[in-house]
Request: fold
Amino acid sequence: MNRDYYQEKLAADKLKRCYEIAPRRIKQYLEAEIQYVLKKINAKALVMELGCGYGRVLARLAEHAGFTVGIDTSFASLSLCKVTMKDFSNYALFNMNAICTGFCSASFDTVVCIQNGISAFHVDQKELIRESIRLIKPGGMILCSSYADKFWSERLNWFQIQADAGLLGAIDLKATRDGVIVSKDGFTARTVRAHDFKKLTSGFDVDLTITEVDGSSVFCEITPR
Reply:
């Protein structure tokens, strides 16, 4: 169901609207995530963003990286992303699934999957990590993020605002709990916690760092050994 949302129901202008109507605290959280990522990349880096949507994050990455690649499963969002990126030449966009990209191994310096993409994509999370590791060059880094538990009330309020605006179905308040937001038309948004990231990366030859940012995000930094 989530794939239908992000490919059709919540793509392009509707997805952009979710961020336009976000409360101030949510906008602070979104900016803090971007700032954290920007501090981790250098001016010559080749950076991939998984689930680039309409280009909200990709445009910021393009300001700082040598070249940026955005992938998404929604053609509508990718079309709007071209508009967002109109002032940049150091980027490319591809319609791809994050767990099975068409790129060669060890192609990127940094792979970015923030704003709870690891949950929002509704793909096999272990396979998402596996593919991201495959894409990273030696010495590179994968940056994933999800929500901090202490940010639950702000997060739920934002999703309620989206539902009230008709961008999501009505929130199912009986099913919404313990880090999981559920709408009555089938949309779900889960939380990936620190112990989940540790479990997802187990079995891979990587170093892992978990960091809380801004009291709103939990970042998982994965560095292949």
Observations:
- The longest strand covers residues 136-147.
- The radius of gyration is 16 Å.
